Amino acid sequence: MQRFFQRLWKWYGNHARNLPWRDTSNPYQIWVSEVILQQTRVAQGIDYYHNFIFTFPDIASLAHAPEEKILKIWQGLGYYSRARNMQAAARLMMDKYGGNFPVRYSEIAELPGVGPYTAAAIASFAFGLPYPAVDGNVKRVVARLFALHEPVQSAAFMQQALALLQELMPGKRAADFNQAMIELGATLCSPRNPACDQCPVAEMCEAHRTGTTDRFPVTRPKKAAVKRYHDYLFLESKGETWLQKRPEMGIWAGLYEFPVHILEYDAGLSPLEIFGNWFYNPGEAVVADRTEFTHLLTHQTIFARFWHLCSDRTNIVEQKNCTRIAMEEIETLPVHRLMHKYLEKKDWRDSTEKQ
Ligand code: ADE
User: Fold this and answer.
1) Do 235 and 172 have their domain in common?
2) Does the pLDDT value for residue 175 go beyond 80?
3) Same domain, 141 and 6
4) Closest residue by Cα to residue 62 from 54, 70, 73, 74
5) What is the pLDDT of residues 159-174, one digit of tens each?
6) pTM exceeds cut of 0.70
7) Looking at ligand 1, which atom is closest to the CA of residue 42?
């Protein structure tokens, strides 16, 4: 075991990436980084991290911020309930802990949106507490090190991984241990073609020893994704357009989008058939263009069509949650990832300037 750590520390000391959240033991900053890193890769996460910390430098500023400002900073990361939960957690810390981060694992784990992984990451990185932080990277490393045969998504796997890591966990360097395991998974122990020749602990790795790294981690077959067909109406009329707010529950909760028509199958409808019910005078709208995207979510594939319709005479039938706004206001409201993709590609400002 001593050899394992000698080699691990040496490698981590020489090869660890220099990441902004590794230079701090501030639990708030560590928390922010971990929540962002659940949503995106390190390269992209760094900008989000700096932006978030710059805008909301501490628990109090996050607790008092307007929700839309937080969602705007979060835009592009997806899964907006994480951002909302962060504010709920910040408010709870204001009320219950005088605006400080709690210092016990059990209290950290009770914060809204903080699961066992994030709680262990904060507890170890900020306070040096010996809790193993088991994310996807670490699962892969452990599955290979110990050749674990349980499917990586199963509770049995998690139990085994936690028990093994807990046993390995050095009393004094909990933070470095968790960071080093994450780093191994992120840089060398990759899903395909792991760089075992550079791995400091390859000689103690059961999968490497038996030439079976490609068999670990064991995975269960995935369920097929549901297909959905979304038709979005970007109706432009007299410098204005319409956006609707999504319900507070479910996917993209509380975010804005163009009025949308959703089908579970491709019916091949025309824009007039799709949006006919929404207009007073649909025949007068001109389709300026149509943009298509395929958007992959964990359990569904969305085939999206954005219809840009223009007419100075067209008016939309008022719908619940549907607001008429000036075109320039589109950028001020938080939109979901698919909308964001469209607005970026389309560069809608060009179209307003032309009119
Ligand atoms: N992914 C999740 N947490 C991380 C961390 N602290 N450093 C690098 N990648 C991570």
Assistant:
1) no
2) yes
3) yes
4) 70
5) 999 999 999 999 899 9
6) yes
7) 9
Which residues, listed in sequence order, are joined to residue 296 by a DSSP beta bridge?
301
> Quick check: CB of 231 below 6 Å from ligand 1?
no
Pairing label, strands 300-310, 286-296:
antiparallel
pLDDT, tens digit, 9 for 90 and up, residues 219-247:
988 888 899 999 999 988 889 999 999 98
Ligand 1 atom nearest the C-alpha of 186 is 9
**Other Cβ atoms closer than 10 A to 128:** 14
Cβ–ligand 1 distance for 16 under 6 Å, the answer no
From the list 191, 194, 197, the residue with the least C-alpha distance to 217 is 191
Q: Does 19 sit in the ligand 1 pocket, CB within 6 Å?
A: yes
Cβ–ligand 1 distance for 42 under 6 Å, the answer: yes
Q: What letter represents residue 311's amino acid?
A: S
CATH number for the domain that contains residue 327: 3.90.79.10
Rounded Cα gap, residues 72 and 256, in angstroms:
11
Tell me, yes or no, if 318 is annotated catalytic.
no
Tell whether omega for the bond before 217 is within 30 degrees of 0, i.e. cis. Answer: yes
Q: Quick count: other Cβ atoms within 10 Å of Cβ 303?
A: 15
- C-alpha 232/C-alpha 312 separation (Å) is 19
